[in-house]
Amino acid sequence: MVRITDFVSLQVNNQVxxxxxxxxxxxxxxxxxxxxxNDDENRLKRIMVGIVIEKVYENYLxxxxxxxxxxxxxxxRNKDVAEFYMNNRIIDIKGYHVYPHFTRDFPNWFLxxxxxxxxxxxxxxxxxxxxxxxxxxxQKQNTSAVKxxxxxxxxxxxxxxxxxxxxxxxxxxxxxxxxxxxxxxxGGTISISDTNESIIFSNGSYTTNNLFSSIQFLSSDVKPTTxxxxxxxxxxxxxxxxxxxxxxxxxxEVTFAAWGNYSDYKFKGEYLxxxxxxxxxxxxxxxxxxxVMIRNLRALNTL
Length: 303
Description:
Helix content: 10-25%
Distance between the termini: 14 Å
Low-confidence stretches: none
Largest sheet: 6 strands, mixed
Structural class: alpha+beta
Radius of gyration: 21 Å
Strand content: 25-35%
């Protein structure tokens, strides 16, 4: 039985957010859309939240002096397998993004939330698997002074082009407040590496100093007020001003609530079919899950 005093709640620092945004922006076109989102904003935020939770947990283990290992982040084009290995267990974090609401009395609310593990994953799971249930809480709308606007390019642009070239950006003089705009891509064709370049426009065009062989996304602290055309050799794409969205999380905090092992879920869990409504997924789940209430799982200090 888990109590509120067993929870571990940690603030998310800005560096963790920025790193998560970069990984999510780069990997968006290569990540399975399990939730069936139809827009880049919700998909990117979901990836970002997962990365934030994993990084906060890793920092927590380091600070706690725990002995553990991890495969770490895979390359952003590959399936993520950032599991943790500790005390002869494979720790798989199940993270949720939730918002403050008058019906949610945090942290008490977490006790009566369903801790989920996808049924298909559990069938393939090992007896040494442990499933750690974690919640990232932030404001639903970012009203803080800090912003991070993102525009994601289609897969044809994020794939490697097999050539490297300077990138030209063109826009009209109504761009808006002067603020750096950063391209996130790759450079090189044989020895390929992640390449970023920050730009401050002084007129209606800019050509990168770096040679790029792909571009995954652009970001800016200020939302552009005009369309931007990107050109590489004879290829062009227009980033319309409506495509930009803010992904910054206001005052995010991660709570690691409880964990359960393979047997807890397989033999004690309740099967929830696709479309089942839960405390988090009020519109219904996208997969079938095994469910154990958080209060009936195990305290973090026993993991």
